[in-house]
Known about the structure:
Layout (H helix, E strand, L loop, with lengths): L5 H9 L2 H22 L4 H14 L2 H8 L34 H22 L6 E5 L3 E7 H5 L9 H14 L6 E6 L13 H19 L7 E5 L12 H7 L1 E7 L1 H6 L1
Parallel strand pairs: 3-4
Antiparallel strand pairs: 1-2, 2-5, 3-5
Amino acid sequence: MGKRTEGEAEAENSERWLLTYSDMITLLLALFVVLFAMSSISQKKFDEFKTGLLQTFSQMQLQSALKGGTGLLEHRSLITHPGITPGPPQISIPQTGGGTPSSTAQQQSAQIAAQINAALQQANLASDVQVAVEKRGVVVRLLSDKVFFNTDSASLGPVGSEVVNIIGQVVKPLPNDIDVEGYTDSAPIYGGPFSSNFELSAVRAVTVLEQLMRTDGVNADRLSATGFGATHPIVPNSTPQNMALNRRVDVVILNSQSTNRL
Length: 262
């Protein structure tokens, strides 16, 4: 047996750290095995996690990422949850300004309608006029057969004139624009000063507009009048009662949103 050289002895000593390293790896492996054996696995969470991985790294998602998609950012979570729809994270921005414009306009319209109703009730005229709040503003409906015009006439009666004055007193200090809309039933006109229902409805609307402007002092820049004739009936013209409902003039106090769009 020959004597080992000094170089062989140094090489053997330099590789001894491998024994310590392998022992440490073995101990770590044993530790993980013990931890795994002591842990409990939720099959439901494991399935959700697996499904999330498959959906996220599927071929479609990879193609989306290659085409400029946001990849993983398109999902809120890798795990699906009931009631949460997939999609990018939602960022909530606090609202400022004291409420939405639509709600503010609705509140203003409700206040105007309440003022008109109160004034009409005080004059014992509320039963002859319909007041409603619609999306565009307050609609004051004047039924011509009850208080306003004789048949085929565009003249305001005494009661109708009083009702228009009450409306004018309420709307005069307001900034809202006002549309006056005339309507008739579908019965054709034969003879008289008007050639058609369009002309009759337009003259009735202008009559109300002029009283609001000249008698009640409402600024002319806020007023407009339109005659719709027999179009836009609120009920079918199938009975005399329904036809009476379609003969009307609507005074529309537009809300702030509708006024700004004009």
